[in-house]
Amino acid sequence: MARRLLWASLALAPVTILVDVLVHPDKTVLFVLAAASLVPLAWLIGEATEHAGEHTGPRIGGLLNASFGNAPEVIIAVIAVNDNLPGVVRGSMAGSVVSNVLLVLGLALLVGVDRAELDRRSLLGQLGLVILAVLLLTIPSVAGWHGDPNRHSLTLLSIGPAVVLLGVYLVVTIADLRRRPAHEVTNATGWSLRLSLVVLGVTTVVTALISEILVHSLEAFAKAAHLSEFFIAIVIVAIVGNAAEHGGAIVISSSAQVALLVIPVVTLVSFAFKHPLSLAFRPIELIAMGGAAAFVAFVIRDGRSRRWEGALLIAVYGGLVVAFYFAGDR
User: What angle do CA 70, 173, 124 make, to 5 degrees?
Assistant: First the structure.
């Protein structure tokens, strides 16, 4: 049923583009349409990547997942950088980590098999990477708690942590790929490789168009809804990019990818734009990311999933959402 709804809701993307071009509606309407459109698009990117991996083997499939698994987050962030919305960029990336670790994982545990065995070693390793990323991000963040958090000196200070994070990600990814068989290909029962790659390419382009509409209408929606841009970015924008994630290991791996790959890549790419991005996260963002990773590590330390633990993670995320609401803009 859920898959049918996702397939049907893919029609929202062309409708949103046509409405934007032909009707020129209120920006708040555009934001809602764009946000709703991104959910099935993010899901379809994941589907196309998974089907392509069936034909290429674990190693190439792993690279495809690393490249396209977090495409919506990267696209939204780059467009926000171009629009000089650094707070939205940092908020959406921090929110992606937090919502994956707490909300999406919590839902997976809640609806999954009670007391199922988890890949404890892998999960704790990925959560450890998130905590490491938060520690490195603290370096430019502390300097940004006083004065302009977007000043040029902080953008230069952000280069070091970004390079280290990217280096750690590459080392971990290469080591993981080497452990996988090079030529083992599963029995492909779904799409052909050509179809998978075409769908992946087209969906990524459409996601970029929808993301541009979303970012350009964000400020107007925030004013109309009486919400801070920070809240919109760290909660709503982050959720729409992660709404189709599923499975505990995939979710935690996605969070580590955002922390170690998306954040440094967006930061380094931002130097091609007029206003480079500084990694000066707010205390609430750092505490939320690091605290969420540490809390989940404590919860799943025994390697068993429990439905009540899923409910607990969702409740903790709800508490953070309330804190984000009262935090306001910087």
Answer: 85
CB 56 within 8 A of CB 196: no
DSSP conformation class of 146: S
pLDDT, tens digit (0-9, with 9 covering 90-100), for 262-282: 999 999 999 999 999 999 999
**Smallest Cα–Cα separation from 317: which of 286, 297, 295?**
295
Cβ-contact 270, 81 below 8 angstroms: yes
Q: What is d(CA 132, CA 134) in angstroms, rounded to the nearest whole number?
A: 5
Q: How many residues does the chain have?
A: 330
Place 283 in a pLDDT band, splitting at 50, 70 and 90.
Answer: very high
Q: How confident is the model at residue 188 (pLDDT cuts 50, 70, 90)?
A: low
Burial (CB < 10 A; 0-12, 13-18, 19+), residue 147, is exposed
pLDDT at site 55? 83
Can you tell me the distance from the alpha carbon of 112 to that of 305, in angstroms, rounded to the nearest whole number?
8
Distance from C-alpha of 321 to C-alpha of 91, rounded to nearest angstrom: 12
Q: Which helix (H) or strand (E) holds 193?
A: helix 193-225
What CA–CA distance (Å, rounded) separates 235 from 229? 10
Lowest-confidence region among 32-36, 49-53, 208-212: 49-53
- Judged on CB neighbours under 10 Å (0-12, 13-18, 19+), 122 is middle
Q: Which two tokens stand for residue 231?
A: 């809240």
Q: What span, in angstroms and rounded, lies between the C-alpha atoms of 68 and 34? A: 20
Among residues 131, 177, 171, 137, which one has the least CA distance to residue 157? Answer: 137
Q: At what angle do helices 159-179 and 120-143 cross, to 10 degrees?
A: 170
> How high is the mean pLDDT of the chain?
90
Residue 182 has a pLDDT of: 57
Phi, psi of 305 (to 5 degrees): -95, 145
Q: Which pLDDT value is given to residue 279?
A: 97
